[in-house]
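Objective 1b. Sequence-to-structure analysis of G-protein coupled receptors family 1 profile domain-containing protein.
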Amino acid sequence: MEVHDGAELCFPQLLNTSCRKPLTSWSVVVFLRILLSSLSVLTVALNVLVVISISHFRQLHKPTNLLLLSLSVSDFIVGLVFMPGEILRKTSCWFLGDLLCSLYIYFATIALCSSVGNIVLISVDRYVIICDPLQYPTRVTVGRVKLCIFMCWFCSSLYSSYLVKDDSLQKDTYFSCYGECALMVGHTLAFVDLILAFIAPVTVIMVLYLMVFVVAVSQARAITAVTLQHSVTVTSRKSELKAARTLGVLIAVFLMCFCPYYCVSFAGGDILNTSYGILVPCLFCFNSCLNPLIYALFYPWFRRAVKIIVTLQILQAGSREANVL
């Protein structure tokens, strides 16, 4: 790699082995850093509230909420690790070394993969409770949900370890330059990643929610036809349908935030290699920020729990038993 101006290099003393600094104006870099740093802080703060709410209040220790808790933990890591790392990678040179680069890629990949896995688990949970409600209490138990969550994170960790290992092998084979932190994988692994991390999960999600939608519509029509003497049952089914709609919004937001990255990446767009390219992968973090806001809009228990937390009533004795439902 030949250069003409040492001031353009991340490490001028290394000459031809150094990467170039991002060619972006100072004002654009400042704007991106302020915007995305604020988004990162907001993502972390909102997901901390979700984690505290579900972990603290006993009434919320239910299978569906445990899945939401797992999703919030992955969203928290996205806001804490993925977003700051992307800001640093795209708006400046990487001065933290190869070890921290590998650790960043490892934890960011775990968070993103577990987010996808948690969304799939939530889809399965909604499918069972809507399409087979009588069997839901026996088929979806707290123990089974915890096992599924563990397997989700375990598989994400294994997959991330393999990506980091392959990344190291690629860098040893095809050296680029010093001053960058990029995930380098072969074409075969990139195709496998596209299948496993996007196409397969999205297909499962879409099929499950199509079936849930059909059943939910038929149940909604049945609810309007029942008599008043079944009001308790009607209220219960309305609650389940509302939960299905809420998680449907959750998945719609997920698809809108994840699709642009994979579409651009699959098309081979060069925008991902520019400073502006940070906006595409950081839609991941925007999704992680929107999830708690969806809870706040659709779940009254979350609003009540947040009120208790911010007013410090959570520090009072017996607050774990508070009625938030």
